[in-house]
# Entry
Amino acid sequence: MNFDLSEEHQLIRETVREFAEREIKPVAQELDEKAEFSTTLTKRMGELGLFGMYLPEKYGGQGLDTLSYIIAVEELARIDGSQAATLAAHNSLGIGPLYYYGTEEQKLKYLPRLCSGEALWSFGLTEPGAGSDSRGSKTTAEIQDDEWVINGSKIFITNGASDINMGCTVQAVSGEKDGKKQFTTILVDGDTKGFKRVPMHNKMMWRASDTAELFFDDVRVPKANLLGEIGQGSKIMLATLDAGRLSIAAMGLGAAQGAYELALAYAKERKQFGQPISKFQINSFKLADMAMKIELARNLLYKACWLKDEGRPFGLESAMAKLYCSEIAKEVADEAVQLHGGYGLMKDYAVERFYRDQRLLQIGEGTSEIQRLVISRYIGC
Amino acid sequence: MKILVLIGNVPDTTTKIKFNADNTAIDASGVQWIINPWDELALTRAIELKEAHGAAIEKIVVANVGRSETEATLRKALAVGADEAIRIDADPLDALYVATQLAAVAADYDLILAGIENADYNGTAVGGMLAELLNRKSVSAVSGIDLEGDLLKISREIDGGAQQLSMSLPLLAVVQKGIAKEPRIPAMRGIMMARKKPLNVIAAADAEALTAFEYFELPPAKAACKMVEEDQAASLIRILHEEAKVL
Ligand SMILES: Cc1cc2nc3c(=O)[nH]c(=O)nc-3n(C[C@H](O)[C@H](O)[C@H](O)COP(=O)(O)OP(=O)(O)OC[C@H]3O[C@@H](n4cnc5c(N)ncnc54)[C@H](O)[C@@H]3O)c2cc1C
# Structure
C-alpha cells in the first residue's frame, strides 16, 4: 500500500490552494453577503483548467484523473463553499452526463465551451414534488413532429440561471413501460422558446452560488437533443449521482479542513484565564477529534476516487464518503464556532460562513438518510 | 535567444524553521518546499517576455543545484511555463560551490536571470559569482526588464530614484521584486504538459565548498506583550520612552 500522493497530485493541490487563497479568499465574504454569483471567478476557474479536468483534451479537458478533480474541489471548499459548489456542480452534473452519454457530435458541440468556463450547464432532476423520490417527477417529454416537447418544472438547480448558463440536461417522464414510469434525459439550450430560468434568492448557504428554478412550457427541441437512449434516464441519473457524491464529499472534507484550520489558529491565539484556550484540555481534545475525523474522511474519499480511477465499482464507497464527509463537516464547523465563542457568530469571522455553507452537504445529491438507505441496500439489508 | 532562470528550492516562507539536534542544519521534516520567490518572479518575467516577443526567445530553461527532492520544485517551474529543466545532482554546499556547478551549464544562454537572494540563507552571492565565473557582464538589483530589438532595457531601483539602462547580450541579471507583478499560477494544462518536458539530471562538476556552517541560532523569542489600562496614558508614555525606547 502506498498512501503518498503523486508529485502531480501534490502540485495540483498547491496550485488550486494558491488560486483559492489569492483570488477567492479576498472576495468570499463580500460575495456571500451580497449573494452574488461571480462570472469573473468562474472564468478564472476555466482558464486554470478546473472544468472538465477528467475529460480528454479533444473536448477541452485536461486528461487528469478523478482524484485530481476531487482535490481541486476540496481545496476550493477549504476557502469557500460557494465557489466549490460552482465547480463541483458544473463538472459532475453539467459536464459529466454530456461526456459519459453524449454522442460524439453532442460532445464536440457543447464540451469545449463548457470546459472553458465561458458557459455553464446544469442538471435538472429535482422537482417540487420529487426530491429524494426522483420517481415522483412530473415533468414530461413527448415526441411530436420529430421534436421533443417538454412540460413541467425543476427546482434547486445549481448553475441553472446565471448570465453564463447555456442550458440544462433535463430528466423527464417520457412514457410508461410495464406500468412503471419511463425516464429520459434531454438537452435543452438556454435560449429555447418556452424555457424560463429563474434565480432563487435568500439562501442560507452557498449564497454566491447560482441556484435556479426552471420552467418548461411547451418547450420544443430537436429529437437529436436526446441524451443517451430513450428510457435510459434513470440509469444516467444514478450514475451521475454516484460520481457527484464524490464531489459533495470533497466539499465536506474541504469545509471541515478549512473550519478546523480556522479553529486551531484561533484557539492558539485567543487567551482567557491567562492562557491560550487551546491549552484547556476540553478544547485541545475537540481539535484532536477534528484532526482525526478529517484524516478518516480523506482516506475514505480518496479510496473511493482510486476505485473509480481503477475502473472498479465505487457506488458503496462514494455513498459512504458522501455521508461521512458531509457529517463531519457539520460536526467540525459546529465545534469550530464553539471555539470562537461569540466571535464565531459574527460575519467578520469566516467560520460563520463555514457553519452555514456545510449545511447543504447533508441534503444535496441525496440526503444523509438516503445515503444510509443506499449503503444498507449495498450491504444486503 | 535562450534564457536560463536559476531556481532555488527553499522552505515555504511561512514555515516555522527548526534545526537538527546540534543546530548545524535545518530540520527538513514537514517542510513545504517552494520556488525561491525572487526566482519565481524572474521566471514569470521570462515567460512574459517569451509571450510578448515570440520567436525572438527560443526557449526558457530552469536550473537548480540539488538532490532529487528538488525535482517537485523544478516540475512546478515547468508547469508554470519553462521549456526544460536541469538539475545538477549535488548538495548546494555554499554560494561559490553552487555558482561553480551552474557555470558548467550556463555558458550557452544569452540571458541568465538570478534572484537577488535565496529565501533560505539569504546569501545574495550566487548571481554575481556566476557572472564572474562566466566572465560575463552582470547587473544587479534589476526591477524591470524588457527586450527592444537586440537590446535589453533594464530598470534598477537605486536610492531615491530609478536608473534606466540599455544593455547588450550576453548578460546576467540579478533581479529583485518588481521584475514581475505576481508569480503565475500554473494551469492544469501546464501541469499535464510538465510531465512530458525534459528534466535533465547532470552529474556535479569537481568543486569544493569554501565555507561550512558552524551552527544556526533562532532569533530571541519576541518579548511578551505588555497591556496598559486604558486610563493610564502616562504609564504608556513612560514605557514607550524608558523601556521600548521608541520615543
Ligand atoms: C442549494 C441546492 C442546490 C441543489 N442543486 C441541485 C441540482 O443542481 N440539481 C438537482 O436536480 N437537484 C439539486 N438540489 C436538490 C437536492 O438534491 C434535493 O434538495 C435533495 O435531493 C432532497 O430533496 P428535497 O429537498 O425534496 O427533500 P425531501 O426528499 O422532501 O426530504 C425531506 C426529508 O425527508 C427525508 N426522507 C425522504 N425520503 C426518505 C426515506 N425514504 N427514508 C427516510 N427519510 C427520507 C429526507 O432525508 C429529508 O430529511 C439542490 C438543492 C439545494 C438546496
Q: What stands out?
A: The two ends of chain A are 31 Å apart (CA to CA).
